Each structure stands twice: as structure tokens, then as C-alpha cells.
Amino acid sequence: MTKMKPEESNFHLAQEGRSKKGMTFIFMRWLFVAGMVPFFFLVPVDDRLSIAFVETLAITVVYNILVTLYFKNNTEKKKDISSVTAYLDIILLSILSFQSCGVKSDIFIFYLFLVCYWGLRSETFKTIRISVFCIIAYTISSVCAGRTFPNEFNALTLLIRDIFILLSTLGICSINSEVKKFDEMHKKEFKLARTDKLTGLANRHYFDQKLVEEVEYSNNTGNPLNVLIFDLDNFKKFNDSYGHIWGDKLLTLFSDIIKQNIRKNDIPVRFGGEEFLLLIRDLDSFMAKSVGDRIRRQLEKQKIYIGSDEERKRVTVSCGVAQFPRHSKNIKEVIDMADKALYRAKETGKNVVVSYDEMDIEQ
Fold first, then answer.
1. pLDDT digits (tens, 9 = 90+) for 214-241
2. 257 CB burial (10 A radius; 0-12, 13-18, 19+)
């Protein structure tokens, strides 16, 4: 069985998401075309315009086939082409509207369909532009149809329908705006529920969920998962000396140092108090330990001290490292091993990174 790299997995997930959106877009287009067919039988026009209607509808079908093929092969360019197709759709619809008696025809409903569709999936400004183009195109096609069918034209009906398109656009934009606000609020709430307020790192609740996924990934790929546990040295004395406000600032400073020294797919966690945990996938023990040491050295460079000149102590950090599944196939045991390595780091003078392998050698 071929193993998939995380970058490839993310790429395929993104491709799948774009593909689903593309299929929805294609489905709606063909539904739109299918809805046009009954108008040929329902609208009584002379033979010349009947032939023109069929010809235009045939062109629309061919055009739809080309758009479908393009979307299936170029899903990443979907946004670029969709803007163009919106205006081409309106032009073709206006031609069909002209050939089915203009204002007299109920093909007007499809203008509302277009406005609603684009209003729900586009930005407000773009939707308004499409709506204005709809009104202009519909007005021109209706006036031209009125000259061909003088008895079928009604200026008041045309005005009312243009206003109705505009009002529909404003309504759809308003709904879409509220939905986006709700979606943004939901995302913020979701982010707050899984992050630590002070540091912005993941909290224990999110860590418990993510740990299961990381273990599954490690089992599926055969790549290791490293657990690093950090604990700020002399933090209690720092807190007692300078107060909780400065203690919080130190915690924030250290969380920023962690963020600066890890990759996007690494998972930093505020594990509790002055204790932090870091999950690192795909690296061997030596490289994982070097990440921990890099973080340790960067905090050391800050030169944060507490106490009087006689009892001056530096605020540093100690770290313990263990690896799944090499040290244990039970991830909870691996976390416990990393914690034991951290305890050994504290015992040996602090401001050091200790791997669980080193404990085995000492024992």
C-alpha cells in the first residue's frame, strides 16, 4: 500500500473540496438549461423566431458542454472563469427572452434565478454588478422584442420587473451578509473553544481531539510522532516577585517563541500553568530534540532574571522528549515518558533538553 505524505493528503482534500463545488456549479447550469426547453413549446411565436430560439438554445447547450469540460479539468481556475460565464449566461438568456416575446414571456423568472444563485455565492459588490447587468440586458431585449411584437410590449410591466430584480438582489445580499456574519462569529467561537485565551495556543480540550488524529496519522504512515513537554524554570518565584500580570506576559512571550520555531503542522499546547506541550510529526528523535533546544536557547537569550543580586536566578525552560511509537505504542505512556524526561531535566540543573533515550542510558 502506497503511503501518502501530509502535503499530498492536504492537496487531495483541497482538490476534492473544489471538485464538489465545481460539480454543484455544473449541475445548476444544466438545470438552468433544462428549464429553458419548455418555453419553446409554451410561447407562441412565428416560425422564424421559433427556429432562432432553437438555434440559440442549441448554442447554449454547446456552450454549457464547453464550460463543463473546462471546469472538470481546471477546478483551480473556477473563480476566474465563473465571473465570465455569469455575464455570458445573462446575454444568452436575454437573447432567448427576446425570441420568446420579451416582457410577455415568463423567462424573466430565470433572471431571478441567476441573481439569487450569484447572490448566495459571491460578494455583495459583484452580485450588484451582475444584477445591474441583468436589468440592462433584460430591458434592452424587452424593448427590442416590443418592436418585433408591438402588441406584447408593456412598459409598466418591464419597469416593475426591473425593480423586482433590484429588490431581490438587495434581499439576497442582505441574507448573504447575515449568513457570513454568523459564520464568522461561529468560527471565532470555535477558535476560542479550542485555544488558550492567554497564549493563543491550543488548549487541553483541542489537544485531546488532535492527539487521536496524530496517532492515527503516525500509524497509517509509519512516521514518528514526537512529544516535547516544556516547563518554565523558577516561574513560581518570578510570579511571586513581579505579580501575575508580568507572569502572564512571560507566558505569552514563551508561547510566541514556540510559534516562531515550529512548522505549520506542529501542534503547540498550553498544557497547564507554566507547562507547554508540543507535538511534532515526521522528525527523528535527534531533530525533535534540536527543535526543543532551539526554543530553550531563544528564551535563554531574553536574559530574564529574578531575585536580588546575591540570589539572582535566570528564568529559563526545561524540556523532556519522547517518541511514539518507538518508546511505546501507547501515546499516553509516551506523554508520561516525556514528563519523566522533563523531571530529569529539572533534576540535572534545569535549562536543558533531555530525551527519554538518555534516561535509558543513565539507568
1. 999 999 999 999 999 999 999 999 998 8
2. buried
Question: Which residues in the chain belong to E strands, given as ranges?
Answer: 225-232, 267-272, 275-281, 305-306, 313-314, 317-324, 353-355
Q: What is the pLDDT of residue 293?
A: 95
The dihedral built from the CA positions of residue 130, 135, 136 and 142, taken in this order, carries a sign that is positive
Per-residue burial over 267-296, b = 16 or more CB atoms within 10 Å of its CB, e = otherwise: bbbbbeebebbbbbbbbebeebbebbeebb
Model pTM greater than 0.85?
A: no
Residue 11 confidence (pLDDT): 37
And the C-alpha cell for 288? 525533535
Three-state DSSP at 163 gives helix
Q: Which amino acid is at 99?
A: Q
So where are the chain's domains?
A: 6-193, 204-362
How many other CB atoms are there within 10 angstroms of residue 133's CB atom?
Answer: 16
For 204-362, CATH gives 3.30.70.270
* Joined grid coordinates for residue 257: 517563541
What value, to the nearest 5°, has the Cα angle with vertex 186 and ends 185 and 191? 100
In angstroms, rounded to a whole number, what is the distance separating the alpha carbons of residues 210 and 190?
A: 14
DSSP state of 2: -
How many whole angstroms separate alpha carbon 282 and alpha carbon 266? 10
**What values do phi and psi take at 106, rounded to 5?**
-85, 10
Buried b (16+ CB within 10 A) or exposed e, 9-27: eeeeeeeeebeebbeebbe
| Alpha carbon distance 55, 36 (integer Å) | 13
Amino acid at 292: G
Instruction: Summarize pLDDT for 252-277 with one digit per residue, the tens.
Output: 999 999 999 999 999 999 998 899 99
Average pLDDT of 324-350? 94
Instruction: Give 197: exposed, middle or buried? Use CB within 10 Å, 0-12, 13-18, 19+.
Output: exposed
